[in-house]
Task: structure prediction
Amino acid sequence: MQFASDNWAGAAPAIVDAIAAEAAGSGPAYGGSDLDKAVEKRFSEIFEREVAVFFVATGSAANGLAMVAANRPGGIIFCHRDAHMIEGECGGVEYLTGGARLLRLDGADGRLDIETLKAAIAGLTPASEHHGQGMAISITQQTEAGTAYSLDEIRQIASIAKANGLPLHMDGARFANALVHANATPAEMTWKAGVDILSFGATKNGCVAAEALVFFDPAKGRDMPFLRKRAGQLFSKSRFVAAQFDAYLRDGLWLDLARHANGMADRLRAGLVDAADAREAWPTSGNEIFAAVKRGAAERLKAAGAVFHEWDRTIGVTVAEDETLIRLVASFATTAEEVDSFLATLGAK
Amino acid sequence: MQFASDNWAGAAPAIVDAIAAEAAGSGPAYGGSDLDKAVEKRFSEIFEREVAVFFVATGSAANGLAMVAANRPGGIIFCHRDAHMIEGECGGVEYLTGGARLLRLDGADGRLDIETLKAAIAGLTPASEHHGQGMAISITQQTEAGTAYSLDEIRQIASIAKANGLPLHMDGARFANALVHANATPAEMTWKAGVDILSFGATKNGCVAAEALVFFDPAKGRDMPFLRKRAGQLFSKSRFVAAQFDAYLRDGLWLDLARHANGMADRLRAGLVDAADAREAWPTSGNEIFAAVKRGAAERLKAAGAVFHEWDRTIGVTVAEDETLIRLVASFATTAEEVDSFLATLGAK
Amino acid sequence: MQFASDNWAGAAPAIVDAIAAEAAGSGPAYGGSDLDKAVEKRFSEIFEREVAVFFVATGSAANGLAMVAANRPGGIIFCHRDAHMIEGECGGVEYLTGGARLLRLDGADGRLDIETLKAAIAGLTPASEHHGQGMAISITQQTEAGTAYSLDEIRQIASIAKANGLPLHMDGARFANALVHANATPAEMTWKAGVDILSFGATKNGCVAAEALVFFDPAKGRDMPFLRKRAGQLFSKSRFVAAQFDAYLRDGLWLDLARHANGMADRLRAGLVDAADAREAWPTSGNEIFAAVKRGAAERLKAAGAVFHEWDRTIGVTVAEDETLIRLVASFATTAEEVDSFLATLGAK
Amino acid sequence: MQFASDNWAGAAPAIVDAIAAEAAGSGPAYGGSDLDKAVEKRFSEIFEREVAVFFVATGSAANGLAMVAANRPGGIIFCHRDAHMIEGECGGVEYLTGGARLLRLDGADGRLDIETLKAAIAGLTPASEHHGQGMAISITQQTEAGTAYSLDEIRQIASIAKANGLPLHMDGARFANALVHANATPAEMTWKAGVDILSFGATKNGCVAAEALVFFDPAKGRDMPFLRKRAGQLFSKSRFVAAQFDAYLRDGLWLDLARHANGMADRLRAGLVDAADAREAWPTSGNEIFAAVKRGAAERLKAAGAVFHEWDRTIGVTVAEDETLIRLVASFATTAEEVDSFLATLGAK
Result:
């Protein structure tokens, strides 16, 4: 009963097989292999346009380097207050950019509020050498609160971005989960909706370590080979990241893995409706659930071997005195048995 | 006949097996797993003292973060002019430190010259707000020229470092190869000789991606959890790096792999003595060889499928008009057949 | 009728005389002159303890370098949302620190709210490699809203700072105005209340360009000679800054200048009580006033030659449809005639 | 007998008068005054084309921000090994650029050697994510060795810069001295010869603190308002810098001041020819002289009140056992009496 996080999971067998196959061979280092290049092309096919793609070690690195590419002096990034960039990267964006600022904006359900965003941008317009200047908007899909932007919401945010000359970045640490949920194509959820740069995460969805930065206008990624190497993010044996992505993107494996994870979350959601000692704290989609659990039940779950994180950001939801807010994350490796055991421990209404 | 680099090689079977085994399980992310902790302890055993160890994605990251840990305002790092930090990291040290300076020092055979080092330090002593201040000495073991410092040379450099209050860093991208060649213990080649911080590379020697930063005084690595995370260098599925190191350090695998690589290089060295169309350009130890090859023979080698890099840094050796300087690197995966084919193509005297 | 800002004013005659006197002589550059050293000692007398003092070019530089001295990886600075560091320095703190974060906290009247501050610090405690760590608290005295912290409030904030191991910084761009208003000694308003680092501004109060960074524990300023020089903030002819401070601090000139400015503001405040077309928007002390002025009257003032800035940060005060919020700043150079003309233009109730 | 440095001098009376005049008035802060704008235009007249000009606090700041404007990831600046950027700014260029590298090049007499420069650039061409990329060439006019580039040499260097897509920066801390010596116009010595960015120093030549960064293509300075403010280099009372430049550039004062300084240096040079106990160590032009002085005579000079710096960079000149190498700098304030006393103390041949 491992629901702590999708990054607590192992790796999918096809991913491991790809690594093993690559281990037996040899080839150019630093991204120069045929496989690296083939996978880069594969990204263009997946996204239905020519993209520039750069493998990096972590999602934080992808986010940070995306912002380095968008950097402006006195630059300000508009993002939700719960964004991973703010809450979970130890100031990495600020460090890697040499001082860009993350402006924390409110928004219900973990999503940027459109009017709040507009007002924040207006408050910094026109750019001034005193207060600085906007440099990017960043959204997380799916969000840290387990919710997701609709394609229409992305388009609205993108149109604000364009109107203000700001690139729109999407932190897609759980991009596949959001995509599967929305039943959209990768193109629809990104550049067709106005996204300029994507942190494309695969680690959480069954890889060992495979993260990529995708520029939908390759010209905007022109400096990235230098930026990535300078940040210590160019793997010498890049082929092993390429091999993971090759397997991940082949025959829709990535979507299957996400579909499985989302399905397990759905099974959990469905069970919670009838659970005696727990309730969904707020509606989510994808593979994350936030639940308010009776304190006694939470203890029971732990005793039964369930693993999960308690959570302190409630997005405004009231948690009762006798409840604990917990986060539950399903992954490609979650089993129906785990879900059912978890639910059984909670009891039925 | 792949002699381009040890980072062109694949990965050793035991390493892949360890990844596969880890893939089937799950556990805490971000270095919190039992395996991560066990491997960290294993490093202390290997080095015969309590060390602080931090896994990172690349050797460049290890070097850069080592220098971040040693950082001082107006700080100057003393290193050999051919150091990887200077020649091969796109200014990563300068970037990650926010502006430390690498002072390029001469030295025959790719090694720092002791007198040159002393003079450079003396020229910046006492520290001054005008010219800055020394912050570290960095040496590469084995060096970029395929040579190695003797334990005594390391001790001499360390004593200069101590006398001047400078930490001594060792870039050990090919540490195992140097260790096996010197027939020394890890402790003898590092802290017993006065090394303070080690970039411990395993990727080139049979891993997929496994690099570690080792502080022989754990207190000096106190900020490193923050520094590593901030730089986007903390893997979420850190367990997979731990698993690689676990296999790598188990039963002396790492030394066996390096011994094999060095042995293949020795076989090549021995063959070159009698080769008609090539000669060792300068003496090296470990798994790298620099050879002056008749231009015609170089073409012949390529035609026969040999892969290698031409080299432009000669460390003062004269290369004749009709010769090309090339670098040959043996790895854990190099076979005797590859070496023999290579030599056969060169012809006998 | 110049009320735009105290940095629109010229310079006090005694300051200019000091520059002229220094111009006729010569002496060591870069702060090495007897005068530089004498003035540094003078600061220790003024503050009744040994301090380390560093002249810099601007208040932004003083604030930025204070934060560089307090820097920690993943470091977070707690300050009011309207702090000059946030609103008026183009990201200078973030840039000079290489990525520290300014956490914008609410607080009525431009002052940090104690409970908000406590909650923010608690939310980041214990330090974590994920969310980062607190590195400093910064308050502005007098604040950007023209208000001031009482000595007791400073002590409360300082005790929070101490309890959390955070240095307390005071941005004293208008320190003299606050001091005169509080009728406190420099020591009482700073280190006796728990302030660790002070940006001591003199430019706004009658100097040409004289700003200093004061460390009440000189050991904390140990690296500052390097940090200042590295940032391009060490004047070669530092003697001219020293000369300004020498005159400024001699015979209480600085307090007289501030007393005059505050007095002119008081005259304006008193007049506004009876003004027909304007009212104080919120109570301030020191030399700044925020007034809600009937739109017609604002136009009349401009036509009459009054110079002032319209203001958009209302700290919650309601400004009526037919009013404009303006800021009025008195300086050492403001005359009673200017004030009276200004009030006359507003008409009497 | 003050020959320590031109930045030990005071300030010219006209400069002080301009400050005093400005002190009596008031006007927009942060460079918005009519005077600021008029002086900016005056620079365009002086240089015979439209330029973008930015006042900053120090020459180090001008140099650093010039390089920030030219910044590229993995960027390498080609400059002479004795450049002030390297020897006298505590790593400011590296810090302000977030990690650009200064490549120390040799060259006789303190000037870049053309062939050495070409080879260094060739060695980094084409740009590579491994070794980085060139970002600028910087020369100092007059050099740190008291010598100067001829217009033709500047043109040669500029043509290399253009051929390699690199901006050419000139550190003109003693620009006026070099200009007067060359009997050239400001345009001829800069953009007409191919210089792109100039650090225009006035402090050493009679100002209190007046340094400017000049972009000969204003578009290249587009970001500079942000870059300058962000670095804490925008004076609030910028009018006082403008006032200094206004007086400095009026009626050729700046050239007169430099002519005087150079004339005093010439008087010293002439006297050294016949001096018993000293000789010019190498030929210089402008206002700096390097002399080899008999040790006894050096003591005699000090006893007589002469102030000067001993020097350790000999540019290859042999200094005898019984000699000391010293630097002598004349300024606008140096008197013939000082020179003659100095020479008298040395005795005649």
